[in-house]
Amino acid sequence: MSVAAPAPKANQGAPAPRYDGRAKVTGEARYASDFSFPDVAYAFLVTSAIARGRIRSMDLAEARAIPGVVEILTHENMRGEVKKTKFLMDGGPASNSVLPLGSPEIAYGGQIIAVVLANTFESAREAAYRVRVEYDSQTPSSTFDDAGTKAQPVAEVSKRHEDPAVGNFDQAFATSPVTVDVHYSTPTQHHNPIELFTTTCVWSGPELTIYEPSQNVYGIRGGVAEQLGMDASRIRVVSPYVGGAFGSKGSLTQRTALIAVAARRLGRPVKLVPTRSQGFTITTYRAETRHHLRLGATRDGRLQALSHDGYEVTSRPDAYSVSGTDASTRMYAAPNIASSVTIVRADRGTPGFMRAPAETPYIYALESAMDELAVALDMDPIELRRVNDTMKEPIKGLPYTSRSVMTCFDQAASAFGWSKRNKTPGSMRDGDWLIGWGCAMACYPTLMAPASARVRLLPDGTARVETAAHEIGNGIYTVVAQVAAEGLGLPLDRITVVLGDTMWPPAPVAGGSITTASVCSVVAQACDAIRAKLTDGTDNHDLVGLLNKKGPGAIEEYAEWVPHGAKPGALQALYRGSAMPVGGARLEDRIQFAFGAELVEVRIQARTKEIKVPRMVGAFAAGRIMNTRTARSQLMGGMIWGIGSALHEETEIDRRAARYVNTNLADYLIPVNADVVNVDVIMVPEEDKLVNPIGVKGIGEIGIVGTAAALANAVFHATGQRIRDLPLRIDDLVAIS
Ligand code: MOS
Question: Full-prediction pTM beyond 0.90?
């Protein structure tokens, strides 16, 4: 078997090639903006040049004079047409609370202030640059430490929020023989999926079809229905393939309703393909965070006290917070724990989900502090994790459904050759290159949401699965086909899977690494129902033979599945597009997480301080692995992104203007092939009979979680210099040497 298709180990599924692979490499797969329509009008956005204030006047004369321009939507002619829909943290679909073209007020830089519509893309773009805007501008607050920002404990603004705590932290910390008291920070980051944030709307009488790359087609449908005062059943959202999302396509942004209104006014289809740069402000981003970590331990490394205070930037209107203390306080057996999360409101767009939203920054801080503690103890960092390993989370004493974190460390360490590590910083060297080996734990909550699906078996031995799940590169077409093939006893190539369309039964948002666990559970349930109906308790399991013998033209089952811990009404919420993922650290009776261990080698040029990452090993245990090929890709993609989050990525803000500076892929740095050398993914067999019927924990996000800390810890090991603010820069190493 090739490296890309690892041989399955215990409780792992076959590395079937991607169901959608051929369609994607041949260009047959149609992404949202690939759908074309006669007489389409093109939209181009005008976005705000200031971050705070109001529009005094707009002069559209020059823009309207451009040949081919048919209409320009502004707050003056739109006011009131798009109604409010709830913000996602309040249980709604919206990524922020600013009403699309709802008023002349400007809440953040890059806010949509006009939509130019024309017969060609070029006319629309030309006209957009000729819209003259005068503003009454106020000095904005950009981020932490700026005058005018407002700090609020999340506990004060969110009913759902908890600050995990147990025992008496202050006392335990004060009396701990070995302590660490440190601060970390992470910058603004943007997802930048290759597929842009497009929207195309087509009306047919009172029926609206929206083509938009989405992680939540039912969420968009429900949100737009509310915004336009329509019956949701008159709206269809189509998104069969998504060219990268990572959280940025999980919520309803302002553009969708605007394009729907534009198409209705014009009486023709309207297509929007925004620019790469506009993508930095018309959707969400990963907020900058700060962390204060305090750890106290005995001399043999047992944690006595752990405190994590997190700080996150958000917008004025929305109390968005990822609150990763939910996870970071529960990973180790510390008897005394304190935590808090504070949001800092600035004149910014509302941040949102980005791959492992909570864990990426918060576990970076925790796992960096653990490394600092290992140094203070003169202890091997893997041994420090072993000493503090636990099968019960420390806050309420709830049992983990399964937890294989030390198995992950052991397998990763063995593959990496960790036993050859000299723990003295700066002691490993190869000529001009300083060598550093670092490690970190990775974790991700096992979350699920209700899901539904329809499975139809035909007498010719084919079957079709319909569910409005989302293929965002996660491999869901493939694993759904595998589950159906197994459930019905058919070869894989006899299964058709259709996804990403509100024509099909609802599936939840493709976020929180919930899709495989949720959707495969319901597909397996539908297949079981077909089997039960056909076999009637006999031991004849030739379903196609039985179907032909019994004589119906087809047998079809519609199934609904609800995860452990779901609230009453969760299924109705699913149909409205607002099913909330449940699980992780928020269950009454147990805690469920996937775990991993990431080990990284860095090589740092002794004089120039250039940082290279020649190899990484990640071992992950996440319950049943459905397909070792697609799973390996997911995990590897996360680890590679982790290199970016540690070394490259930062959206730079002009602090005077509260505007982003590097809004393009030349200046927003990400890892390229030369930055990614050897990435070894180990899938550790694990069986979890509790999490869900198929035993899947989810792997979409965990790959990125430990990388930044492992890399920062490796940089310390190479140099003896601790950099606590991401990204790690050559300048930081030059400045301190
Ligand atoms: Mo993921 S950031 O939960 O889409």
Answer: yes
